[in-house]
């Protein structure tokens, strides 16, 4: 998942981010993530469904929120409100320590300060052999993918527990 560098609290997906993701908003899978009934089925829903149930997630700090530098306080708890759509452990890659945050629905944010390899290892361990999702943002994802792709065949960027990685350009 990439993002626009102009992301703000009022524009959390960046300029054009909502338009880029409009295909998923009306799907049955997306609606179910937020406890709603209905939604479209078909190829868009099939694609959304394959990514909808990871056993753990790793995020870059910028994907977690707009706060830069040391955490000024514990007020920011992510873009998603009290019940984020993950419902699984989420490992946030950051340079600044912060205590884990337990949210409604089974999401717990863990803040990893000892590098991307550690965040990926923790996400892999938490997935217990199942799929994990990397939503670390463009810079972190490129670093992650390069390390993962070297261990796998060219063009196959599956993580050790089945996590998806997009090959770098």
Descriptive report:
This protein has 169 residues and is of the alpha/beta class. The protein has 2 domains: 1-52, no CATH class; 53-169, Dihydrofolate Reductase, subunit A (3-Layer(aba) Sandwich), CATH 3.40.430. 31% of the residues lie in helices and 11% in strands. A 5-stranded mixed sheet has the order 3-4-2-1-5. The longest helix has 14 residues, at 138-151. It starts with 16 loop residues before the first helix and ends in an 18-residue tail after the last helix. Residues 144-169 have low confidence and may be disordered.
**N→C terminal distance:** 14 Å
Main sheet makeup: 5 strands, mixed
Fraction of residues in helix? 25-40%
Low-confidence stretches are: 144-169
| N to C succession of SSEs | HHHEHEEEHEH
CATH superfamily of the largest domain: Dihydrofolate Reductase, subunit A
Number of domains: 2
CATH hierarchy, class of the largest domain: Alpha Beta
Which architecture of the largest domain does the CATH hierarchy give at level 2? 3-Layer(aba) Sandwich
Helix count equals 6
Sheet with the most strands: spatial strand order: 3-4-2-1-5
Shape: globular
Query: What is the average per-residue confidence, as pLDDT, rounded to a whole number?
Result: 75
Portion of residues in beta strands equals 5-15%
Fold-level CATH name of the largest domain: Dihydrofolate Reductase, subunit A
Give me some keywords for this one:
169 residues, alpha/beta, Dihydrofolate Reductase, subunit A, 2 domains, 5-stranded mixed beta sheet, single chain, disordered C terminus
């Amino acid at each position: 998942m990439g993002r626009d560098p102009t992301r703000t609290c009022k524009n959390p997906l960046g300029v054009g981010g909502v338009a880029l993701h409009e295909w998923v908003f009306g799907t049955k899978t997306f609606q179910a993530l937020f406890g709603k009934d209905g939604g479209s089925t078909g190829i868009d829903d099939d694609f959304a469904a394959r990514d909808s149930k990871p056993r753990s997630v790793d995020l870059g700090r910028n994907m977690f929120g707009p706060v830069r530098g040391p955490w000024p306080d514990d007020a920011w708890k992510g873009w998603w409100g009290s019940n984020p759509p993950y419902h699984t452990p989420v490992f946030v890659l950051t340079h600044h320590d912060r205590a884990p945050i337990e949210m409604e629905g089974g999401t717990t944010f863990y803040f990893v300060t000892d590098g991307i390899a550690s965040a990926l290892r923790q996400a892999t361990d938490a997935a217990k052999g199942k799929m994990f999702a990397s939503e670390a943002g463009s810079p972190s994802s490129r670093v992650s993918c390069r390390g993962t792709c070297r261990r796998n065949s060219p063009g196959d960027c599956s993580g050790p527990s089945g996590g998806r990685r997009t090959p770098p350009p």
